From TrEMBL:
Keyword Methyltransferase applies: yes
Gene3D superfamilies: Vaccinia Virus protein VP39
Taxonomic superkingdom: Eukaryota
Protein name per Swiss-Prot or TrEMBL: EFMT4 methyltransferase
Family: Belongs to the methyltransferase superfamily.
Keyword Transmembrane helix (UniProt): no
Lineage per the UniProt record: Eukaryota, Metazoa, Chordata, Craniata, Vertebrata
A GO molecular-function descriptor: S-adenosylmethionine-dependent methyltransferase activity
Domain called Methyltransferase type: residue spans: 1-107
GO terms for biological process, alphabetical: methylation
InterPro entries: Lys/N-term_MeTrsfase_sf, Methyltransf_11, SAM-dependent_MTases_sf
Length: 171
């Protein structure tokens, strides 16, 4: 869900000539098409992240910034995610894995801390490795965000495999 963020345009301006952005809102996509009509390298599509209409292995990079957080917004206990939210997350991540080319990179930017988010990403079925980094101004009291990088075709660390398996065990 690109929303009305300028990120796609910013990437284009930084030299990435071929950027595809999706959102489930037709009004949002229409507004973004109009706003950036002068940038032919930007493509906009109305699409559901749970059922991407792209062919298999069609992207070198998939970037999401807060979109996956929407799947967890109604969860009241981040330590015990509902089966519905876990299934929705798995469905979306399976779609991301499907559209990534071998060697492709999935980048996720979120406020979700590693102990909450890594188990979702660390599924062997997705066929990717997993790394993460905390980002912020260095102040321990500051609100940090997290960058997760998954590389298609590289193995998961055994510790991450164990995290992913814990997600599917009953509480």
């Amino acid at each position: 869900g690109c929303g009305n963020s300028a990120l796609s345009h910013d990437l284009h301006e930084l030299g990435y000539p071929d950027v595809t952005s999706i959102d489930f809102s037709p009004a949002c996509i229409a507004a973004m098409r109009a706003r950036y009509a002068r940038c032919p390298g930007l493509r906009w599509a109305v699409m559901d992240i749970r059922a991407l209409a792209f062919p298999d292995a069609s992207f070198d990079v998939v970037l999401e910034k807060g979109t996956l957080d929407v799947l967890m917004v109604e969860e009241t206990d981040p330590w015990h995610v509902s089966p519905q939210a876990a299934a929705a997350m798995r469905r979306v991540l399976a779609e991301v894995s499907r559209v990534l080319r071998p060697g492709g990179c999935f980048i996720s930017i979120t406020f979700a801390q590693p102990h909450f988010r890594k188990p979702h990403y660390a599924q062997e079925a997705f066929g990717w490795s997993l790394r993460h980094a905390a980002c912020g101004d260095g102040d321990a009291a500051a609100f940090h965000y997290f960058l997760y990088v998954m590389r298609k075709g590289q193995p998961l660390d055994p510790r991450d495999v164990a995290l992913g398996r814990r997600l599917h065990q009953p509480p």
